[in-house]
Amino acid sequence: MIDTSPSLALVLAIVVLITVGVYLLLERSLTRVLLGFIAMSNGINLLFLVAGGAAGGAPITGQTAPEDMSDPLPQFMILTAIVLTMGISAFLLAMAYRSWQLNRHDEVQDDLEDRRVARRAAADLAAFEDSDTEVTTTLDEDAASAHDEMGGDRS
Amino acid sequence: MTPPDLLWLSLTDLSWVVPLPVLVPLSAAGLALALWRHPKAQQIISVVALTVVLLASLTLLVAADQGPVVLDVGNWAAPVGIDLVADRLSTLMLTVSAAVTLCVLIYSLAQGLADGNRGTPVAIFHPTYLVLSAGVANAFLSGDLFNLYVGFEMLLAASYVLLTLGGTGERIRAGTIYVVVSLVSSIIFLLAIGLIYAATGTVNLAQLAIRLPEIDPGVQLVLQLLLLLAFAIKAAIFPLSAWLPDSYPTAPAPVTAVFAGLLTKVGVYAIIRTQTLLFPDGRADTLLMVAALLTMVVGILGAVAQNDIKRLVSFTLVSHIGYMIFGIALSSEQGLGASIFYVAHHITVQTALFLVVGLVERRGGSTSLDQLGGLARLAPLLAVLFFVPAMNLAGIPPLSGFLGKAGLLQAGVADGGPLALTLVGAGVVTSLLTLYAIVKAWNKAFWQVAPVEPAPMRLPRAMVGSAASLVLLGVSITVVAGPMYDYTQRAAATLRDPNQYIVSVLPDRARGAGVSSDLAEDTPDAELPDEPVEEEDE
């Protein structure tokens, strides 16, 4: 039976990475979401490493005795996950860039129902103040222009 | 071996067919990408590849009725190597999805021809579409949790590209939301796999089915809920469904159609597979029932409130996922069988509906129900094509939607619990509200006097033809409903007895049929439970 108690350092690293990841995923800017996604994926990759038990020799028959081998399966899964993360990161970056090209910001935009509700509220307010204004933009344009203003004047 | 022997072997042992639905589209995707300068060649490759997939799926559908067809990939014995398993459930899903992807491909080819391929980067459409199809097939056939994850990632990565095709402002907006939500679900799935490996030392589904009952029930519940959470986001179960009606309608019509038909159903498939095989004692049933109830009711109320035909149909999609979850939550053979039947019916009907809505948009020049009108007079065939799947979705007898719902309601009544009976009531109400929403759409789009008379035009014949063939496929499910319902009941019976699956993958409950070295037995079991393990009873 091999030693399966996880190393404290690894567990702490997982905790930190996943906490950071969750925090960043909740941000609106796509770049931060991407960083959060990468942090979380790495945290989970470490989790796989812990799941595989203590480190041992290279799992090659003839080089290491079977009882001293480290478990190769989690390593293969981590490799696959790293490749997938890389591909998705590239795609997310491209999307953030495209969003910046189109709208000069890279925030995850409101969905159209949200904008519809916001527009209804705005219409109510206008009626209350007796200052009717024509709505000339589409919901899509509304969604693209509505965003948190972070870091300076970018309306 | 002489050639006749080989031929005989290939006819009796069909395991060589199992990887084809994954391998063929993947290789074709590479080929299509290499030939991006030759759109004609790409089209031929895609059509041929998906036809091969359909034929392979049909072969497996027949073969799997005698028992699951298992392939240990690369001849590595099962718990160490990856295995592909084609049982009744997965082959049925595979066949329906192959038929649907082929129809949608032809539709999109016709659309591309009609539009002269302007403004759409079709060079990447074909390879991506093929990868999507391979991912779906891989998810259905996988006998291994990690391979299931890879299948999901394949189809999701392809869907990200398809959804943001062309990179217009609204597609980027919808795509961002879709991608971020999908990423969260993938991360949760990966987390669940990591924890499962830590707890049991395996990711092979059959071996998991043996080992999971041995671990602490509390840990089991955590793993079960994590998997459910990941799949529920993909299947768009309320309250995890808000992303769907917002992201699907912005994509091109054929893309929306294939997403609506397949992607959520892959999530439902994964729920069925894991709930029946890994967690057969049904501890999440109450939770699933409540989720099913809310999905049905909230989804259909969303549809009733919509004024845009694409969004309306997207909301009905969410609502009808509720029926499938209801059947799963009943944890009975009858309920599960009806649920599987419903999934198969819903894939064809929902895809057909989205294709027809694409035609409506094309003919009427809008998707807003305020601007559409008078289409019954302008395009009578289109009116019929919309009417048939719409009524099928609402569950009007004798169409298959009615049969599926009747089966689910019967199973609910047979269960007899208060929650199940509430769900039966909610199912009927949802069905009526679906009828209301869809009839409202039909009246406005086809009967009301058109506010703006659309310019006269002819719809491309091949687009109408492929949409019509999908509508016919939906109707033909009604015709073959008897044998098909029996098939799904048998599929459910297999699922309710996990032992059949285990034995077909690991004949002696330890190793598969591959020839890998015996050192495999020394693979460290990462964490066996501390208490002495009892031999599980057969």
In brief, what are we looking at here?
The complex is a heterodimer of chains A (155) and B (538). With 155 residues, chain A is an all-alpha fold. Chain A has helices spanning 8-25, 30-51, 72-103, 112-128, 139-145.
General description of the model:
By secondary structure, chain A is mainly alpha-helical. Chain A has two domains: 8-103, Helix Hairpins (Orthogonal Bundle); 112-145, no CATH class. Chain A contains five helices and no strands. Chain A has helices spanning 8-25, 30-51, 72-103, 112-128, 139-145. Chain A is elongated. Chain A starts with 7 loop residues before the first helix and ends in a 10-residue tail after the last helix. The model of chain A is unreliable at 151-155 (pLDDT under 50). With 538 residues, chain B is mainly α. Chain B has one domain. In chain B, 72% of the residues lie in helices and 1% in strands. In chain B, strands 1-2 form a two-stranded antiparallel sheet. Chain B is globular and about 70 Å long. Mean pLDDT of chain B is 85; it is low at 518-538.
Core attributes:
heterodimer, A: 155 residues, mainly alpha, Helix Hairpins, 5 helices, 62% helix, disordered C terminus, B: 538 residues, two-stranded antiparallel ribbon, NADH dehydrogenase (ubiquinone) activity (chain B), Na+/H+ antiporter subunit D (chain B), ND/Mrp_TM (chain B), NADH_UbQ_OxRdtase (chain B), transmembrane helix (chain B)
Which helices and strands appear, and what pairs or packs with what?
The complex is a heterodimer of chains A (about 160) and B (about 550).
Chain A: H1 8-25, H2 30-51, H3 72-103, H4 112-128, H5 139-145
Chain B: H1 3-12, H2 20-34, H3 39-64, E1 69-72, E2 83-86, H4 88-115, H5 122-141, H6 145-163, H7 169-200, H8 205-211, H9 217-235, H10 243-247, H11 253-277, H12 285-305, H13 309-329, H14 333-364, H15 375-378, H16 380-394, H17 400-415, H18 418-447, H19 461-479, H20 481-496, H21 498-505
Helix pairs in contact in B: 2-3, 2-5, 3-4, 3-5, 4-5, 4-11, 4-14, 4-19, 5-6, 6-7, 6-11, 7-9, 8-21, 9-11, 11-13, 11-14, 12-13, 12-18, 13-14, 13-18, 14-16, 14-17, 14-19, 14-20, 16-18, 16-19, 17-18
